[in-house]
Structure formats: C-alpha cells, structure tokens
Design brief:
CATH architecture of chain B: Roll
Helix content of chain A: 55-70%
Strand content of chain B: 35-45%
Low-confidence stretches of chain B: none
Order of helices and strands of chain B: EHEEEHE
Number of domains of chain A: 4
Mean pLDDT of chain A: 84
Strand order of the largest sheet of chain B: 4-3-2-1-5
Radius of gyration of chain A: 32 Å
Oligomer: heterodimer
Distance between the termini of chain A: 84 Å
Number of strands of chain B: 5
Largest sheet of chain B: 5 strands, antiparallel
Low-confidence stretches of chain A: none
Largest interface: A-B, 42 and 35 residues
Number of helices of chain B: 2
CATH superfamily of chain B: Ferrous iron transport protein A (FeoA)
Mean pLDDT of chain B: 89
Structural class of chain B: alpha+beta
Helix content of chain B: 10-25%
Chain lengths: 731, 82
C-alpha cells in the first residue's frame, strides 16, 4: 500500500515549546533553511507512522497573524497558500489567555486546527486547572495535552493529527469571535458586496477577507487587487468606506476595536475552562531573575557569561583547531606525495586542501559557539541578555539581541553573522550583518601585531587597541547612518517576552547546534571551494614565468660551488658550509618566489591597482597582500613575507620581516593606514559566503563588500594624507 | 499618568495605549487592553527597558514605549498577580 502523505504546520507563540514538540515529532530528521525570499528560518522534518508519511513544517513563532512582521506573513501565507492538511497550534498552558489570541486567529482561517496544551504540568503546579473538553467544545477544535520536555502526549497528538487529516468534514464555523453588532453588520455587508462583485473563485473564504479588509490588512488588499480584477478597486473602496464609518462611530481604528473583541471572546472562554485552585506558589524563575537581571549584579554576571562563552569557543576550540590544522597539513602532504608533481597536485594541495582547510578550521569554534547560543536560547537567558543590553544597542538603532553577534565578531565574523539568526526583525539582522565585520576578528590580529610591532615599538599595544576602538566607533557611526538611510523605518518596538527559565533538553541543544553548523559545512563549503580555487589560479598562473634570472641554474651553481668543499669537510667546517649553502639557496628561492608572485596574475593585478593604493601609502606589494587577504585576513602576513623577500614562512613575530618592512620605505603612518585598511576592507571569503547565505541576497552581499572597501580606503586616506599634512610621516 | 512613571513594585490599570497604528496593535495583541492590570517588576540595570508582568507573563518594554501607555489606579502591591 503506498504511503499517504500529510502536511502539518506547527504554529504557536514564541516560547510555547514549539521547537521541543517539533523535535519530539521528527527527531533528528530535520532540514533547516530559509523561507523563500526572506531570511526567516524554516525548519522541516519528516516522520513515518502507521503507513503515513508526515511532513512537519515549523512555522515562525508569532503572537498574532496580522501582517506586520515578516514572521507573521510567512506563517499566515503558508497556512493560506500551501494549505497544510492540519495546523497544530502549540499553546503554553500556563499562559493561556495570551496564547489563545493566536489560536482564535488560526480558527478564523478555517483550516483544520488542533490545539496542543503544552506544559500542562507547569500550569498544574501553579494551581491552574484546565477543562480540555469544555475548551474543545467551545472552540470546536480537538485539544491534546502534552508535556514537551518529557515527551509526553506525542503519540496521542500523532493519532489526533491523522484522524483530523482524514476526517472528511469541514469544521463547523459556528463558534467564532463575535465582533459586536456594528462590526458584524459591516462584515456581513462587505461579504455580500464581495460576493456580488466577484464571479471568479476567491483565494480565501469571504468572511475572512471581509474581516481582514476592515482591519486594513496590506497583504489581503494586494491579493484582492490581483485576483478580483477588475472589481478589486471597487471592493477596496467599499471596505475603506466602511472603515471610515466604523472609525467615526467608535472614534477608534476598527482593527483596534476588533482586537479588543477577540480578547473579550477569549476572556469568556478562559472564565469557563480555567479553574485556579490555589494561589501562586514560589516562582523559581522570578527568583532567578532577581539575581540575573539584578540592578547591580545583572551586568557583571552577563559579562561573565559572555567571557565564559568566549573562553570556551576560542580557548577550548583551539585544541580541535590544532588537530584540524595538522590534519589538513597531513592531508596536503599526503596528497602532494601521492599525486605526480604538476598542475593537478598544485591545485589540490595549495588550492583545494589549503583553501577549504583554512575555513574548515573554524568548525570547532562554530560548534562550541552554537552550543553556547543554543544554551542561552533554550534556557531563556537570551531574552535577559537583550533586556540588559538593549539600552546600549539602541544607540545604533538596534535591538538588545544584536549585542551577542556583535561581540562574537571579535572572535570570528563568520559564526557571529550566523548568530544573527536569533534576531527577529529582518532590518535588524541586515544592519547587524553589515556592521559586524567592523568588529575586528582574531584573524586580523597577526597583521596588526606585525605592523605595530615593526613600527610602533613599545607603543604597539596602544596602536592595536586604537584600531579596535576605531572599528567600534565606525560600527556605531555606520550603523546610525544605515539605520537612517538604507534601512530606514521605525525601530521595531521592544515588546519582548521574558519567558520563564527552563532546564534545556540536551538532545534539543545538540539538534539546534548541529542544524546551524550543518549550514556552515554544506553551503559555505561550496563557495569557499570555488573562491579558493580562483585565488589559487590567480597566484599560480601563468605557469611559465619569464624570470629575470635563471634561478635553477644559479641554485645548481651554488650546489656545485659548495659540493666539493662539503664532501671534503667534516665537523664544524662541514656544518658551516652546509648552512652557508642552504642559506644561499633559500635566499635565491625566496627571490624566485617573490618574482613568481610578482609576475602572476594576482601580482599583475596588484601592480595595476597600485595607483589606487598609492594615496593611502601602500606600494604594489601592499596591494597584493591586501588582495590575497580576501581569502583569509591572516594571509596578508604570509604574502608580505613572500613579497618583502623575507621568506614565506614568516609569521607576525619574525624579526627579519619587521626589518625588511622598515627598509621598504614604509613609515609608521603608512603602516597605521594599512592596519586601518585591513580592519575595514572586504570581509574574508568565509564571511562573505556567510553574508550571502544569511542575507539570502547578492545585493546585500555585494553592497557589504563595496561599502566596506570604500570606507576602508577613505579612512586610510584620511589617516595617511591627514597625517602627512600635519607632519606625522617622519615620526 | 503613564506607565513609565511607575516605580518598581507598583501596579496600575491600563486606560489607553497611544502611539502609531502597528505599535498600538502589537501592544493590544500582547494584552495591554483597557482595564488590564500591569505590575512593574523591575527596571533594567541601565534604567531602560522595564520588565512588566501582565496576564501572568513577563514582558519588557522600552521606557519611551511605556510612556505611551496611559494608566490609572496606581497601587502598591507586594506580590504580582497582574
């Protein structure tokens, strides 16, 4: 017998335990992505039971189904357009009244709905008893009890889902919100008007359309214009007329009056089904909050948690990072040995393995970070963090929740940008993503250490600190600028629920961590791979370089020159000769590497671009270093090592490279301008890939690259030219 | 008097929510209806936002948002059943 497939949509308020129920239903068979066209997270899972194939779609958590927030639109459109077989509304039993608001709106959509009274145990503890039969009867909806975090009631829910999906009856529409005489009259008249005007099938049933038009619902108005042509205009005019009349009558917007009536309807239900047995006992959650959001202790504790998260992510993460680094090195070596020397080996070793390896190394960071974030979210602490930091973030026009991604940026921008998934408003997310790279990530530190170490001596620490401060100042200014221009619009109201603290489920934490990390691995892997190969190509081609000298011959000559002497010598003399020879050879090899990269495509590009970099105090070598830094910013150091002819193995602590830099004509001023440039310009490849992924838009990705590079140039220009003008160049 | 003028530990009843359309509607949907009791649980360490209890749940609002909510019948209560 072929399996029958059923689509289920999970709806519910945020914090009603929706994701726990989702995990209970689908286990680990989940797919996380975005809803088409928007950056709202979409989760989908499957399960097979009793010959049915159930597809469970987790709708965004919302308090209502008005068309104000993108989450509400996504949730509503899914129910209306995709027509799932059953909508399951997860209701937090201990918070029944407010949760029923969404429930009544779902009922109004006239789809098959099941109410799940979740966390009934908590409600009982608080002395709240609910008469489920009565509730079911009053709303004409099947009601199921569950305790999500103990996986209770899941089987019964499944049974109910299947029986409701199979039931061949339309849900009776008798038990519905009564909006009062005047509004009901308007709804009736408008429905009649719509029925007369339209012959074609309407997308939704008429009463709902009439209600939404009276509520001035943007999306429904658009749909009517599209589908009820040519009568759409007339319908909207009639609706506006009725709105006007109601507004005059109530001296209030009709949608406000209607909201009032819905709550009135709910109050009636609550009165009949809820029995409060005893007064509230000790509220543990509230007592925890007396400490965690305490006026004196709240902020220090928050700082401690963040510090601990950083420590875990970057200190604990350093060990597996070393292993991955070693593994990648070993893999490269192995591949180099197996593959015949040549183009293919070079591509695989230096392009694919090194390139992808440079990003894969962040995986431990990302896993640990997302585990911590899942812990913050699942316990309910995330809302407290936003509560504590909102005042600060509000300065940039951002929500308190943006604080954590911004802070994570100091570690690594790629996971930090992925952490913006916790923000609800799309504008907030995009703004946070755009300014996040200005938080100087740890990969940029080696560049600062090298340049500041070479040119600022004892004041290196201050110079580096000032670069970090510059990044923060720029983030605030750019944030304010974008907020008032590109991402204009009202700051989303900070109406944020502070849910009770909950003990997280370990399985849930792992699922949340893995879902997000998987995206990093899968999707980013592709982009990084392509990008690494391109950069490899640019620096490895053209293959045949016409060198100014015959390095091979010269190296052979040196070998020959020392050959006889080494053969004859022993002891100290032998050692001295060998080291002399090796030094001479490696000096030549470095020169050759320098010339090779100078003549490669990327070197030529650097030279072509050098007029652009000249005004900010960089020669072509600086330009090439900056270009290669696109792959990963720490690469700037190794490229400079090659180009300033100090050898490719140099790191930021190398004295030879520092000396070479000082001799190259760089001044403290141009070094500082370069540090500023490295801080601001194009985020690295991994970050760009994440930006593309998280904004779901090439437009924003390209904008991010363009604005940061332009800003980098302007700031470096001001530093260099401004500094020169006031005579700092000689210091 | 408006909600942002209340001190920690006070309760008041909502009389009217001001502000623009979407904001008002959102607050009403969250339960800030005329006659609803709202208890001021605490202010954040930086004095903004405010944590409130209404209809049995905790919610936070910025001070300037709370300033748009008119309240009456302010009273001191020890425990919040708001």
């Amino acid at each position: 017998m072929p399996e029958k497939s059923i689509t289920i949509a999970l709806a519910g308020n945020p914090n009603a335990g929706k994701s726990t129920i989702f995990n209970n239903l689908t286990g680990t068979r989940q797919k996380v992505g975005n809803w088409p066209g928007v950056t709202v997270e979409k989760k989908e899972g499957h399960l097979k039971t009793n010959g049915y194939d159930l597809a469970v779609v987790d709708l965004p958590g919302t308090y209502s189904l008005t068309a104000y927030s993108i989450e509400e639109i996504v949730a509503r459109n899914f129910v209306l357009d995709e027509k799932p077989d059953v909508v399951v509304d997860i209701i937090d039993t201990s918070n029944l009244e407010r949760n029923l608001y969404l429930a009544t709106q779902l009922r109004e959509l006239d789809t098959k709905v099941i109410f799940v009274l979740n966390m009934a145990d908590l409600a009982r503890e608080r002395g709240v008893k609910i008469n489920a039969d009565k509730l079911s009867e009053l709303l004409d909806v099947p009601v199921v009890f569950t305790v999500g975090n103990r996986n209770q009631g899941t089987q019964e829910l499944l049974k109910t889902i299947i029986s409701v999906a199979e039931a061949d009856i339309d849900f009776p529409r008798t038990r519905r919100v009564y909006y009062g005489k005047d509004i009901e009259k308007a709804v009736g008249e408008l429905s009649e008007f719509i029925r007369e005007k339209t012959s074609a099938e309407l997308p939704y049933h008429i009463r709902w359309i009439a209600i939404k038009l009276l509520e001035n619902d943007r999306i429904v108005k658009e749909r009517i214009l599209q589908s009820a042509n040519p009568q759409g205009e007339a319908i909207l005019q009639e609706a506006e007329l009725k709105r006007q009349r109601l507004r005059d009558f109530f001296d209030e917007e009709p949608e406000i009056v209607m909201t009032d009536h819905r709550y009135g309807f709910i109050a009636g239900i609550v009165k009949e089904v809820v029995k409060t047995v005893s007064k509230q006992r000790v509220d543990v959650s509230r007592q925890i909050d007396q400490v965690l959001t305490n006026r004196l202790l709240g902020l220090p504790i928050f700082v401690f948690f963040i510090w601990a998260m950083f420590q875990l992510t970057f200190s604990l993460g350093a060990y597996p990072m070393d292993w991955i680094d070693a593994g990648v090195g070993w893999l490269g070596e192995g591949a180099g040995r197996i593959l015949p020397e040549g183009l293919l080996a070079d591509l695989i070793v230096n392009g694919v393995i090194a390139g992808v390896g440079s990003v894969a190394i962040f995986l431990p960071n990302i896993l640990i970070l997302f585990f911590c974030i899942a812990l913050f979210e699942d316990t309910g602490y995330m809302a407290r963090a936003a509560f504590l930091m909102d005042k600060v973030m509000h300065l940039i026009g951002l929500h308190g929740k943006s604080f954590i991604p911004m802070l994570m940026g100091f570690g690594c921008n790629a996971p930090a940008i992925m952490a913006t998934r916790t923000l609800e408003s799309e504008k907030d997310r995009i703004l946070t993503i755009l300014i996040n790279p200005l938080m100087s990530c740890s990969a940029r530190l080696p560049v600062y250490i090298l340049l500041a170490g070479a040119f600022f001596g004892a004041r290196a620490g201050n110079a580096i600190f000032s670069i970090y401060a510059l990044g923060i100042v720029l983030a605030i200014s750019v944030g304010r600028l974008f907020r008032s221009t590109l991402l204009k619009g009202k700051v989303a109201p900070f109406v944020m629920e502070l849910p009770p603290y909950r003990v997280p489920m370990f399985k849930g934490l792992l699922i949340h961590m893995w879902d997000r990390s998987k995206i990093f691995l899968k999707k980013i892997g592709g982009v990084i791979l392509i990008g690494s190969v391109i950069v490899w190509f640019l620096s490895a081609f053209p293959r045949q370089v016409q060198f100014s000298r015959d390095y091979q011959a010269e190296i052979a000559q040196i070998g020959a020159h020392y050959g006889a002497g080494i053969e004859a010598a022993h002891g100290d003399v032998l050692e001295r000769l060998v080291s002399e020879r090796d030094e001479a050879v490696s000096a030549l090899e470095t020169l050759q590497a320098k010339e090779k990269i100078e003549r490669s495509y990327i070197g030529r590009l650097g030279k072509v671009l050098s007029p652009v970099f000249a005004p900010i105090g960089m020669d072509w070598r600086g330009s090439v270093a900056i270009l290669t830094g696109f792959v990963a910013k720490e690469i700037v150091v190794s490229t400079m090592g090659v180009l300033y002819a100090a050898g490719a193995d140099e790191d930021e602590k190398s004295e030879a490279l520092k000396t070479a830099l000082k001799k190259s004509g760089m001044t403290p001023l141009s070094a500082y301008a370069m540090m500023a440039f490295v801080l601001i310009y194009v985020p690295c490849l991994a970050t760009v890939a994440v930006i593309r992924r998280e904004t779901n838009s090439w437009k924003w990705t390209i904008f991010s690259i363009a604005y940061s590079t332009t800003l980098a140039w302007i700031v470096a220009f001001i530093i260099y030219q401004g500094g020169k003008a006031i005579g700092l160049a000689v210091c | 008097m408006n909600l942002s003028e209340l001190r920690t530990g006070q309760t008041a009843s909502v009389t009217r929510v001001g502000g623009d359309g979407p904001f008002r509607r959102r607050l009403l949907e969250m339960g800030f209806l005329t006659g609803t009791d709202v208890y001021v649980e605490k202010y954040a360490p930086l004095r903004d936002p405010i944590e409130l209890i209404l209809k049995g749940y905790h919610v936070s609002l910025r001070v300037d948002e709370a300033a748009r909510i008119q309240v009456e019948n302010v009273r001191e209560v020890k425990t919040a059943h708001a």
